[in-house]
Write a structure and sequence with these properties.
By secondary structure, the protein is an alpha/beta fold. The protein is about 50% helix and about 10% strand.
Length: about 350
Amino acid sequence: MSSKKKKILVLGSGNFGTCLAQHLALNGCDVCVWSHHSDVVDSINKHHRNPRYLSSAQLAKNMTATSDLSEETVAMSGVILLAIPTQALRSVLSKVKNLITESHLLICAAKGIEIESLEFPGGIIESVLGPGVAKSAVFLSGPSFASEVVQRLPTAVSLASENPERCFESQKLFHADVFRAYSSDDPTGLEVAGALKNVIAIASGAVTGLGFESNSRAALVTRGLAEITKVGVALGAKPLTFTGLGGVGDLFLTCSSEKSRNFSLGYQLAKGKQAKDILSSMGSVAEGYYTAKAVHDLGRKLKVQIPICDQVYKVLYENKPIEDAVRDLLTREAKPELDGIQSPPL
């Protein structure tokens, strides 16, 4: 049986889960989306629409939905795609920890750091499903707004795994003329970049909301990339990974568009709104809000200086005025540009 005919179970019915499920269905796969929202399940099955996310998109006929995570549902799926917010990933995986095995092709599209454990999704997968499953898992990241993917606009992402065969299998599933999938052997780098770019995007939205223009944003994004690289290198990632789609590509996208929930969070903070009010009005998770706390703690654990991430944390969790955070960043003493980076990212 060709890999494109495998049954795919997508865990998560949010924006990204829905757009990836739609792409895979249009790419020749039989796709089933798991959701704990009964209205989503009913609407996808009856009307081929997700009423909560990307609701204007007509979904493929070979895309179904279920609220069942039984042994039969998991067993009949050769591919499992994780599109769950990172803070909820452990609890969902715990429901299927005895059902997902190394025979499954496990692809993870979650981005973030779990606050309690400081684990990236790969670490959560390892602790719940075991090291064998984690080592063969594939991680997907890159500049890919869900609204554009579902419109079939050209997009390119990176797929990374320690297992080259599984990475190649994933490429065959995703690759298409409107969705180019590149391979990587550095899942650590891809995960670090995918998580931390959301924190830098909050900062980018904030400086834009304060009225700063192109010079300021370019400086912020570039120094943000340096912070991401420093954390990645400290965790064993390859510096070159951060020059790719999952690194600077995703960072540029999410730091430069109001389509980014994290950019929007920062922008509205700069306009005087409270974080809790912004988050409650979004309808989707701004993962950078949670990642800001986790990366603040992780930076201290690794003894890595990440001043932009630290200031975002202080604004979100200590109610520091954004103007004071900007002032403290601008008045830091001069340093070598590549300080703390073992090899230059560019």
